[in-house]
Amino acid sequence: MRLSYPADVKIIQVPCTGRVDIIHLLNAIKDGADGVYVAGCLEGECHYISGNLKARKKVEYVKKTLEEIGIEPERVAMYNLSSAQGARFAEIASEMVEIVRKLGPTPVINSAA
Amino acid sequence: MIVADRKSLEEILEMVADCKKILIVGCKGCVTVCNVGGIKEVEILSSSLEIARKKAGNDIEIEMKTLERQCDNEYIEQLSETVNDYDAVVSMACGVGPQFLSEMYRDQKFFPALNTTFFGGATEHGVWEERCAGCGTCIIHKYDGLCPIARCAKSLLHGPCGGSSNSVCEISKDTECVWDLIVRKKMEQGRLEDLFIVNDFKDWRSARDGGPRRSIREELVQGNI
Which CATH architecture has domain B2-117? Predict the structure, then answer.
């Protein structure tokens, strides 16, 4: 397909989005990511039954935490697509990058970095 | 188990506002089971506080440690070498933890990150309900294993009261009337006449009304067991 997607996106592969935990998302923000999104399988299509549904709840938790801190919750998102939707994958990457670009750089400043 | 809720980030941030380096101490006991103060929750609180402080341009250094329990001095002692390396220590145990810590380490400041709520259990994933009031004199055998002290808003020994409607207590539509449960269970078991028995006044001296309580097990104190 040779689809291109923004180079701003760094992919971390997991066996199932059920493996993604709240702490992984929080630590990404803590360490200076401008945004972080989870790309899981389509709802109802999880090979492990509910991994993607649990991931969505964890994303919601992180959104609430960021809100409490005063950071835009839109910096964290959950998307669902199938492994056959390459075009959608590229589209989501562009969409997320666009959202984050509008929000601007992260307000979490890593002075040590 | 002891059930607790985490304080808001805002409240915890306020507590550690003047600190540059803190320790967050979790507990592997009850608060781990009710998902509020174990290893995972310590990590989440630490990361959240760091994010908030970095955003405010006022970095904080946070270290984490989760003890087997914070209600036994033998575990609290494990912090002895490092406890004074921090500006303050935040405890994610029930209310017992920060007190045991404060008593052992008199030079350090300890903050509670949790609000300890009650003795209870999980009725479904993520929902905990009160079951015991720790009154010191258990009488649930008279009520077929259901506790009117902890679960009746008025702690009635003879009920239900007029506030019971369709099995629900008048205080809230989410609170079931325990007296309704007791009567139904007695009826199912054909022992409704048990409820005609007039019980003696409850001796509240064994509860908090008698002041702070202490439990001494002589055989353990003497070291025979």
Answer: 3-Layer(aba) Sandwich (3.40)
